[in-house]
Amino acid sequence: MPDSFQPQPEHRFTFGLWTVGNPGGDAFGQPVRRKLSPVEIVHLLAEIGAYGVNLHDNDLVPIDATAAERDRIVAEFKKALQENGIVVPMATTNLFSDPVFKDGAFTANDAAVRAYALHKTMRAIDLGVELGARVYVFWGGREGSESDAAKNPLDAGKRFREAINFLCEYVRDQRYDLKFALEAKPNEPRGDIYLPTTGAMLGFIATLDHPDMVGVNPEMAHEQMAGLNFMHAVAQAWDAGKLFHIDLNDQNFCRYDQDFRFGSHNMKQSFFLVKFLEDVGYAGSRHFDAHAYRTEDAEGVKDFARGCMRTYLILKDKAARYNADAGIQALLKEIHAGDSAMAQFFGPYSSEKATALKAHTFDRITLGSRGMHYERLDQLVFDLLMGVR
Questions:
Q1: What residues are annotated to the active site?
Q2: 9-324: CATH class
């Protein structure tokens, strides 16, 4: 029987150069794998059936490269993309690794650092567009503080707003077909990062000069670090028309940023996320911003990447089975059954409707004593995921 869980281009599965290219170092230990070149990573992604590769500017071009070195590296990378049928849907700027950004980039107290951050980002945007990117992500990894004595959060917000407004105008001036996606994270590497959740980013976007150009790139692990329900954040972004990109991985709640293989830890949460994306028809990339365990060698990295895609497709199949399951759907219909007598009270406001609603008598005791059957429904979900239904 053919394996129906093999990735295809239409699934739009992508990985970053920094994900499959992670050599397995951490704050407590040296790298355990050979660092792959960008060209080698493109060949690896083609081998495992991925659709695309995303990158920070310095994942591809070293920060101190000369113009000639930059052009040579980019030409070799573009050649590898073309030979392997791999695309670059998203790009971003590294504004967190170099010591110059130790106090942030767009929110740094040093005006020269803020100007350099704009300089670096414009050049990185040019590179992303040259490679075909249509989405540009901003993750403010150093945009924060350890002590509130160091920065005024109002000043920081103003500086970040001015930077995004400036870069929106740059994209418009260059006539680039590009949208921005802001990525939230509560902490790490800073003690506290500004705009720490997807909801905070959505509120911030409404204050920009060109909010239509800017959406969000929610990341599963980042919301789970704060103990939040990632699917709810994604639903809020979708409802606002702002889900421009998404980062998939997994995480033990309220830990450091673990970036586990997608679906490896929270199966039920991953299932409902996939179900949501498929039910609403999300057409963007499914980007796996995750890393192989430090225990793995080069073959283990391939196992990790294949596992991310396979898990998504298995959960997609489970979501279709959920939607087609007669018992589950019958129970959902019962749970969500409407009350025709209540229809008169919903919809747009009118003074007549408000008067009628205030005058209506409700049987509060009966309403409060009804069982909702959520225990039965949740067990059916578990049975489905475990393959016994």
A1: 56, 59
A2: alpha beta
